[in-house]
Write a structure and sequence with these properties.
About 35% of the residues lie in helices and about 20% in strands. By secondary structure, it is of the alpha+beta class. The relative contact order is 0.30.
């Protein structure tokens, strides 16, 4: 069971393809993970309170794709993710 303070972020990228490669790599090595991505476009739209909806559509604001694993799996996950090409 996932819970407060029991997981740690092990990977972050702005590239969606790299994000899916990381998820596939963890899954193929039987490491449970959580998608802890932040949709910054949606956040910007909410923060602008609807006054300028185009803010989130121009492509300048990127989503941060993140993966978290249980603390007990952190070292193994980081070791596996280090195999990803940069």
């Amino acid at each position: 069971m996932w819970g407060f303070n029991k997981e740690v972020e092990v990977y972050t990228t702005l590239n969606m393809e790299r994000f899916f490669r990381a998820k596939d790599l963890l899954a193929s090595n039987h490491i449970a993970f959580k998608d802890t991505s932040t949709n910054n476009q949606l956040r910007l739209a909410f923060n602008s309170r609807g006054t300028n909806i185009a803010l989130s559509r121009d492509g300048s604001v990127k989503t941060s794709y993140s993966i978290s694993v249980r603390k007990k799996d952190e070292n193994r996950a980081r070791q596996i993710l280090s195999l990803l090409p940069r």
